[in-house]
Design brief:
It comes from Actinomycetospora corticicola. The chain has about 140 residues and is α+β, with helices and mostly antiparallel strands. About 30% of the residues lie in helices and about 35% in strands.
Length: about 140
């Protein structure tokens, strides 16, 4: 793992910038965890970032705050993202994120369960893992 990814892996929040077909950037604050030589992100399979990544795997990563605000002068890391929906990938990523974020991650899982109840017991939203490596 490169030093830049190690540094980003230590951050509470990372701004993940994906790109529309037009080339316009879309930044989203995400949680990340280290996994081998890269970072993982846990997200909904229907999210905009997943749709954009299916067309352009290049991303930019920057340390940010909870609201996605990036401090002036924060370095940008160019990376490649791969959408991983393989069996076990989501469970493994959940374990890594739970170890890093603790009760906060548990709270997110609780909100996801509540969402299913309010959607009248519909099927859970499919989750995927984004695997981020230096380009």
């Amino acid at each position: 793992m490169t030093a830049s990814l190690v540094t980003l892996g230590d951050q509470r929040f990372v701004s993940l910038t994906t790109f529309r077909r037009s080339g316009d950037p879309v930044a989203t604050p995400v949680w990340v965890a280290r996994d081998g030589d890269g970072l993982v992100v846990y997200t909904s399979a229907e999210s905009g970032k997943v749709k954009r990544l299916r067309h352009d795997a290049q991303v930019e990563l920057r340390a940010c705050d909870r609201r996605g605000r990036v401090a002036p002068g924060t370095p940008t890391v160019e990376a490649t993202a791969v959408v991983d929906d393989a069996d076990g990938a989501v469970d493994d990523a959940e374990d890594l994120l739970r170890a890093k974020y603790g009760w906060e991650f548990g709270g997110i899982r609780l909100l996801q369960a509540a969402e299913r109840v309010f959607r009248r017991g519909g099927p859970p939203r499919e989750r995927v893992v984004l695997r981020l490596t230096v380009a």
